[in-house]
Amino acid sequence: MFGLFNRIPSISTKELKSKLNPKIVLLDVRTPAEYRSGHIAEARNLPLNRISTYHRPTTEPIYLICQSGARSKQAARLLTRQGYQVINVRGGMNQWSGPVRGGK
């Protein structure tokens, strides 16, 4: 097993809330339907099955979120291999208590 917890930095949803700003790179790796059901305003949807298509030059960290944290960990592994600095959001949208856009 890949030493995931040692290699992929992570933050809580509370920590993410304090970092949100218009310039943050926050990728929501859930399906488009999940994203439409409610997402963080600053998040861009890039489903896990398309994460390998991400090719944007950035020196900023990329924050990754999904529903529970499992898919974002997978995405983090893939983007780390491509040389990006990534940070996984532990607990995902299940733990998010801030405002969401979309949904019911």
UniProtKB/TrEMBL annotation:
<dbReference type="InterPro" id="IPR036873">
    <property type="entry name" value="Rhodanese-like_dom_sf"/>
</dbReference>
<protein>
    <recommendedName>
        <fullName>Rhodanese domain-containing protein</fullName>
    </recommendedName>
</protein>
<dbReference type="Pfam" id="PF00581">
    <property type="entry name" value="Rhodanese"/>
</dbReference>
<feature type="domain" description="Rhodanese">
    <location>
        <begin position="20"/>
        <end position="101"/>
    </location>
</feature>
<dbReference type="InterPro" id="IPR050229">
    <property type="entry name" value="GlpE_sulfurtransferase"/>
</dbReference>
<dbReference type="InterPro" id="IPR001763">
    <property type="entry name" value="Rhodanese-like_dom"/>
</dbReference>
